[in-house]
Design goal:
single chain, alpha+beta, Beta-Lactamase, Jelly Rolls, 4-stranded antiparallel beta sheet, 6 helices
């Protein structure tokens, strides 16, 4: 009888252990080896530009895995580079988004815990999950981000190497809901992105020189202007122009269920938003 009871207890422990394992979530982590390759690609780009910068690669919690301070780079850039990378990792978006929010009048972004609202930090994404980030500091904001982008592109290319088994990307409803609440990317890969976009107010005028936007309206209505010319347009990065408004162009009302494809190089502007709107944007990058 004691033997039978012992076997029953052992079986229950085995079943309990198997159930616990089934309930655990699998997590992809950024290895030191991968982080070093990201930093090396960014360093190569920096040296092409004769740039004196600090390059930092962090894990998904914002803790440094690799830090490179290139020759003759100012010491102050070390902490700034770490801050940019950490911001991109823990907030799951490029650090420049917070700098842009401040420029657009949202001063509350200055007091976000753990945020460094400066351009130059980019998340590293695998199958829709941010597993780390790269931050660069030392030169102009745009050059810092361009150098970081070289590292991020090398990472994306390695993650999508030919011969690797294709992986399905799945976003549970709760994850999508949270993405829409914040208005943030679901996935960013070298040649396409999927954004869960949210707006409560009109936006700024934009031109993507390489990205074609495919917009699908999920909720709400807005006035969208396409074509024409951007007023006071400025290159905020190498392939992105932004300005105050669009002059001329075509004005149309868009609402739930509408789909619009905005070719790269086409100015566009959410001139008016009639209450909160949610919409998907699929960004497809052209080769040139």
């Amino acid at each position: 009888m004691k033997l039978i009871k012992g076997l029953i207890v052992l079986a229950m422990l085995v079943l309990s252990s198997a159930t616990a394992r089934a309930q655990l979530l699998e997590k992809t982590v950024l290895t030191l080896e991968a982080a070093e390759k990201v930093a090396a690609a960014a360093e190569t780009e920096a040296k092409k530009r004769n740039a004196t910068v600090v390059i930092v690669v962090v894990d998904d919690g914002g803790y440094p895995l690799v830090l490179k301070r290139l020759n003759d780079t100012q010491v102050a850039s070390v902490d700034v580079g770490i801050g940019k990378a950490r911001t991109a990792a823990i907030f799951r978006r490029p650090s420049r988004e917070f700098e842009q929010q401040i420029k657009n009048g949202r001063l509350a972004s200055l007091v976000l815990p753990g945020a460094t609202p400066l351009q130059g930090g980019l998340p590293l994404i695998v199958n829709g999950k941010v597993i780390g980030a790269i931050g660069v500091s030392g030169n102009t904001p745009q050059e810092d981000e361009d150098i970081a982008l070289a590292g991020a592109k090398a990472f994306a290319a390695a993650a999508a190497m030919p011969g690797a088994a294709p992986k399905l990307t799945y976003f549970p409803a709760e994850q999508v809901k949270k993405a829409f609440e914040k208005g943030m990317p679901l996935i960013e890969i070298a040649n396409y992105k999927v954004h869960a976009s949210h707006r409560d107010a009109p936006g700024i005028a934009e031109v993507h020189t390489r990205d074609t936007d495919i917009i699908y309206m999920l909720e709400g209505a807005a006035t969208l202007v396409t074509g024409g010319a951007v007023v006071d347009g400025k290159h905020i990065e190498s392939e992105e122009i932004r300005g105050n408004e669009v002059k001329g162009g075509e004005t149309r009302e868009i609402s739930k269920g509408d789909v619009i494809v905005i070719p790269h190089g086409t100015p566009h502007w959410f001139k008016e938003v009639k209450g909160p709107i949610n919409y998907y944007v699929v960004k497809v990058r052209s080769a040139n």
